[in-house]
């Protein structure tokens, strides 16, 4: 049996590499080259910078091609084996269809985990570097970490009211300094302290406010403000690195950072349905490699299907088109709260998993 698995695995490798190259070429030719050409024509970007942008774009493209290449490779490999009657010979020798598809499923699973690794450790970093370069030549300066008119309003779980309200006109994420700051603290759902300051700075012991006033609030009245030059806040609120994450693009975050971002946004009382869908898609889209392998194997084994690359490519494009329609529908429904975010992200995988299982059962009979 090991010899059979080894033989089928070799049949899968060549069309898989062909699929990766073909689909990467399609993405480059239909999108990336037009973007880089626009940068060159309208912004006068140098060749070296364009080459950097090209290679920084590749990781996110390659991750998307893994499921497509797995689909194409599985269809082509099993179609070739079927048309040359090797599938019939294997089955006559006592090898079931379920065992014959194991190499494809293993390949799909391996590529799924490999894609998850790239999404976690490579793609966010390359996306961030890409965004920095684009920002620098479009604005003539380094990408700032400054946020303007920033509001933080975490909700207390017990009272379901604000824990505090923080407003700053300007926040510099590099230095951890706020300018023109207002902090209103709440106790048991009721406002009790208002701090107004020219600036605030993060220190190891917490936030320190400079040149401002403190107003103690009581029911129906406000105690006159107490002026201060320096004031160490006893209130616990977000650290600079946590606040900076609110200004980071979702595509530039890894899985852990995205979870922290979602938690931080939820504490602000914001809806994060779309972000939750994106979080689950970090797993569902890579696992399309396994789903496509399950679907493509019975499609290839079915007698009478041509093994040509053109037919395999055409069938793959049809399956991919349907898959992305379902993914778009699931994304929209999950982001709007019509269905749970996790279901919106996994909808297309669930549909194709059921369809692939049915096809495999019918072919194996």
Features:
365 residues; alpha+beta; 2 domains; 7 strands; elongated
Give an overview in words:
A hairpin with a 2-residue loop joins β3 and β4. α10 packs parallel to α12. Helix content is 61%, strand content 17%. The two termini are 21 Å apart. The protein is built from twelve helices and seven strands. The longest helix has 42 residues. Strands 1, 2, 3, 4, 5, 6 and 7 form a seven-stranded antiparallel beta sheet that branches. By secondary structure, the chain is an alpha+beta fold. The protein folds into two domains: 231 residues, no CATH class; 83 residues, Sandwich (lipopolysaccharide transport protein A fold), CATH 2.60.450.10. The mean pLDDT is 87.
Portion in strands: 15-25%
Q: Total domains, how many? A: 2
Structural class determined from secondary elements: alpha+beta
Instruction: Supply the number of helical segments.
Output: 12
Please summarize the sheet with the most strands.
7 strands, antiparallel
Name the helix and strand elements from N-terminus to C-terminus, one letter apiece: HHHHHHEEEEEEEHHHHHH
Q: What is the mean predicted local confidence, pLDDT?
A: 87
Total beta strand runs: 7
Oligomer: single chain
Helix content: 55-70%
The best one-word shape is elongated
Low-confidence blocks of residues: none
Radius of gyration: 28 Å
Cα-to-Cα separation, first versus last residue: 21 Å
